[in-house]
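Hello support,

Our group uses your service weekly, and this is the first time we've seen a run hang past the timeout. The protein is Elongation factor 1-alpha. I'm not sure whether the cause is the sequence or the server load. Input pasted verbatim:
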Amino acid sequence: TSSYYVTIIDAPGHRDFIKNMITGTSQADCAVLIVAAGTGEFEAGISKNGQTREHALLAFTLGVKQLIVGVNKMDSTEPPYSEARFEEIKKEVSSYIKKIGYNPAAVAFVPISGWHGDNMLEVSSKMPWFKGWSVERKEGKAEGKCLIEALDAILPPSRPSDKALRLPLQDVYKIGGIGTVPVGRVETGILQPGMVVTFA
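Update from on-call engineer: The timeout came from a worker crash unrelated to the input. Re-ran successfully.
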């Protein structure tokens, strides 16, 4: 984006991959919850055991306090690019995430079509009714029209870089011809190329 390099951790939606989703989500500063707008699809996701509910709850529980909601597949609503459908989904998701602990006023809701690229990087001409998203939080307000601008409005967390280096290992890969590759996230301190580190 214009302000940040954003690393996307694409967590699978399917129930069989819930462990991967938890691993990915626990590393994130912000969650982008993708909700399908198609007839029946949204209803399945927001139902009692639906993935929309499950993922929003997991994200909050794992400490991801910033949220963006992308209302996807706007091209397959009835009629296509329906404002009423977007508003219905926004209302329903707002009410659910509020119960979990998110403040809906601080969450950007963006109607998008990933397939056609509507409102992803550029404003779509197919949704003239959408005047843009706006969020209010104690750090200030932000507004925009596209998903990329919502990513640009994420507040970066303050990282404890003044403390000793701590890097919990998530996984270790053995790659032929390259060697052993440890994977993890720097929680405190600073890691730089050429440093000699000891794993305890």
